Amino acid sequence: MKFPQTIQLDASDQYIFDNAARPGEWAVSGAFAFAGEDTDPGALDGADEIAFATAFMGTKSFGWSTFVVVKKISPDAFTAVVAALADYFVTHYNAPNREVAMEAARQEAEFAASLCEHPVNTLLGVERALGDDGITEQFRSIVGRNESAHGPAWELVEDDG
After folding, report:
1. Could you tell me the residue ranges of all domains in the chain?
2. For 54-89, what is each residue's pLDDT tens digit?
3. Which DSSP string do the residues of 80-136 spell out, in sequence order?
């Protein structure tokens, strides 16, 4: 199975977001953070507005990342992502119980996995907007070259953290 993983192409996420995801975290769309009854995406500003419009959510820090990269995920790591999301839904979104939180987390993780029908190391970006039917998302992909006349387009470095 493949799954999105946060990546930093430069240091801009550290300056843009109040809570930036660390490179190497498994990631989900994160649109749920803007879909609650208490949240009005049209009233967001600053870092929250940018996160709404263009970012994925890491599943360790629950911070934001402008880009993710398609990577292979083990079944155990996928299970851990679902469990972390469920815990987050219980503690931050008042899920009524663990069973409901696990189902919502599983759906969110399966959606994230469905975005990864691309070769490993494909870069993914998101554009989100608020429309008449609620939040819409458009995903784009960039397949990196292994080498060019100037060297690799980007280098993926594993994070020990």
Report:
1. 2-143
2. 999 999 999 999 999 999 999 999 999 999 999 999
3. HHHHHHHHHHHHHH--SSHHHHHHHHHHHHHHHHHTT-S-TTEEEEEEEEEETTEEE
